[in-house]
Amino acid sequence: MFGVKRGSVTTAPEPCTLVGPFLPTSCPDGRRCLLFESMLKSTFQHLRGVGKKSERTLWEKGFTTWQLFAASLPKQLSLYDAAVASGSPVAESIAAYERGDMAFFAKALPSSEYYRIALEFPADVIFLDIETTGLSVHYDIITIVGWSIASDYGVYINGQDGASLREALRGAKAVVTFNGTLFDLKFLNKHFDTLVIPPIHIDLRFFAKRVGLSGGQKAIEREIGFKRGSDIVDMAGEAAPILWHKYRRGDLGAMKKLIEYNHADIEGMKWILDVCTKRYFKKEAIPKRIQTKPRFTEQSSRISWANGDSNGSTPHPILIPAFSGTNRPLTTYDDLTAIYPLEGFCAVGIDLVSSEGRESGFCTLRGNEAITCRVKTDDEMIRLAMDARANVVSIDSPLSIPKGRTTFFDDDPFREEFGITRECERILKRRGISSYPCLINSMQKLTQRGMLLAQKFRKLGIPVIESYPGAAQDIMSIPRKRAGLRYLVDGLKEFGLTGEFERTPVSHDELDAITSAVVGHFFWVGMFEALGNPEEEYLIIPDLHGDHGTWLSRRIIGLSGAITSGKTTIGEYLTGCGYAYTRYSQILGDMLRERGIEPSRSALQEIGWSVHQEAGQRWLGKRVLEQISGEKHAVIDGLRFYEDHALMVETYGPAFIHVHLTAPTSNRKKRLLRTPQTDISLDSATRHKVEGEVSGLGSVAHCAVVNDGTIEALFERIDEIFTKDKGCRLP
Which of 422, 578, 635, 647 lies most in the core, judged by the most C-beta atoms within 10 Å? Predict the structure, then answer.
């Protein structure tokens, strides 16, 4: 293959006598003709074995074009690995140039040198910029795409057919963006099917960095002296989604301003490319005879409005149509309640702040009716949730810390090893949704309060999930509060909610609390995604394509009740019906055996209380859940604490049915005598601290069963429950 051998001192021939597609047959002054030198035809870095240093050596020796190099090769075979013949690298370059094959150069030329192709074909370079509803390729959508080729500017508005954009891209040899590698091109490939994008892509964000210009596009524009129009000079990128939401609601002027903003972005890119090219020439000491003067700022475009504001000479006069799509979020309350009836379901949403000295947003969402207020203390939040008989509480706050961390604060000895960010936050970041790390300094007290509040709820048997209203709004296509509270209110109304918030202004905290409660709806019907891992718990976000069928088709039975009230009997019965079976005492018994202790009732109670105090009841519950992981139908025997109930609801939603058993004391004493592992009396066992909350679990259970008859009667009652007997408060 082609390569320059060290020690060569040969220079290019003087006369321009080679007849070919690039050079004339002669030069008037008898010297080598420089007329046809250009950045691309002077490029050798796309050839194997040639880098910047080798290319510079060729230039210094006078080989400033492929043709000059080709003319010299027959005399200099000792210097190179191959002659320029048909099929040789140089011949392939010439042929690719003649047929306009930019893919050939894109494959072989370092991307840092793609600017040379843009300079070679200035009339075939497309400058492109998109506007979107947000930064997440995963969830957000394109609103408009603007482009400019030479002095022409065109725009695609979401909902149009996009034919002009496709045609423009298909005919371009190179595309120029700012941060398009990570943003624009990803959105385009998601939004359009089989879109043909030029293989030569110049991303100005990275080109600018190489010449000492860093920051966002507007910061670079200010540094190089590009000035935007006075009506948009102070407009930030965050305003683009707001303009789109205004346009969706009938404001054609908002779309006009969005297009003007997009046009300014594109014209700014032309300035940046010219300045970067000149700086790169200087930085790399590109010989002047090789340089092609950048002239993209001379190809400025203007907007031609089809309504007559300009003469319409451009091939793409822009007509702003009335928005014809829907303002509805991507999923509505009616869609969710069609999956699972939510009319009597109550979700509480809390937009938590870090201190009880300040007010948090609070929402009680029963069915589609939202009632909001602002609350300071944990005790008041708990009282309101209990009064509402909340099925689930959804809190906008981190409810866990990174795996391996032991405290919330920077003095944690494991801070450096395990960091400040959880897996769920890293996932959101990869998807383009911004969120604060849970243990960044400004979030530490909020995370601490959120975890303690969740623990208080769970100790009362109230299930808790972590939510993030901003992410939920993005996923549902509801404007965030930064777009303006009016648009967030409209979005919640369009989702299908009602309440005083429609008529009376409420705080942004209360609106986010409503959204948190809505996440509770998505969770309950199975239209959600759990981000994270078991050790760090999960952040719940809506999933518009969630597998609600699998979520709702399961049946997980939890059994609680006093000692010898019949739990194991029911468990064995349901096992015969095809249910998987596990119990809390099984985990505790295994722990005893590992310590060389034979399980007995008193030993099980002692280790149960020890685990409850030290590792925590939630830890034990998770070990129990591991025993039935992946099972569609299962029975969990031996719930003893309110926390057990909360964990099971958080894990299985409405698929979890809690059955609480009671039985006359006389019957229980008789059964105890027949129970293996019994080494203490019923009275003594019942008084143990580990049994302290058992009798109260009936208040949170879905079904209450009195086992005061025969086994056959007990089984009949269980059968009735699972045919949705009216006497059972099923979820």
Answer: 422
Return the H-helix or E-strand segment holding 495: helix 485-495
**pLDDT of 731:** 62
Residue 351 identity (one-letter amino acid): D
Kindly state whether residues 603 and 644 are assigned to the same domain.
Answer: yes
pLDDT tens for each residue of 582-611:
999 999 999 999 999 999 999 999 999 999
Contact 650, 463 (CB under 8 A): yes
Tokens representing 153 are 């500017």
- Coil, helix or strand at residue 255: helix
Confirm if 174 and 202 have CB atoms less than 8 A apart: yes
Type and span of the H or E element at 143: strand 142-149
DSSP β-bridge partners for residue 582: 636
How far apart are alpha carbons 386 and 20 in whole angstroms? 88
**Considering the domain boundaries, does residue 681 fall inside one?**
yes
Cα 624 to Cα 637: distance, rounded to the nearest angstrom: 10
Mean pLDDT in residue range 630-659 = 97
Q: Of 11, 315, 358, which Cα lies nearest the Cα of 152?
A: 315
Residues 145 and 70 occupy one common structural domain = no
Quote the CA–CA distance of 31 and 658 in Å, as a whole number: 96
Based on DSSP, count helices (H) and strands (E) in the chain, helices before strands.
28, 18
Check whether residue 280 and residue 361 sit in a common domain: no
Dump pLDDT digits (tens) for 543-571.
Answer: 999 999 999 999 999 999 999 999 999 99
Position 668 confidence tier, pLDDT thresholds 50, 70, 90: confident
What is the residue whose two structure tokens read 């059964």? 671
Q: What's the pTM?
A: 0.84
Q: What is the pLDDT of residues 209-233, one digit of tens each?
A: 999 999 999 999 999 999 988 788 8
CB burial class (10 A; 0-12, 13-18, 19+) of residue 391? buried
Which pairing describes strands 142-149 and 125-132: parallel, antiparallel, or unpaired? antiparallel
Q: Are 81 and 1 in contact (CB under 8 A)?
A: yes
Identify the three-state secondary structure at position 144: strand
Residue 2 has a pLDDT of 42
Alpha-carbon span 469 to 513, nearest angstrom: 8
Which of 511, 545, 579 finishes a domain? 545
CA–centroid distance for 727 within its chain: 44
Question: Is residue 66 domain-shared with residue 123, that is, in the same domain?
Answer: no
Close Cβ partners of 210 (under 8 Å, ≥ 6 residues apart): 112, 276, 280, 283
- Whether residues 494 and 622 fall in one domain: no
Q: 268-308 pLDDT, tens per residue?
A: 999 999 999 999 999 999 999 899 999 999 999 999 998 75
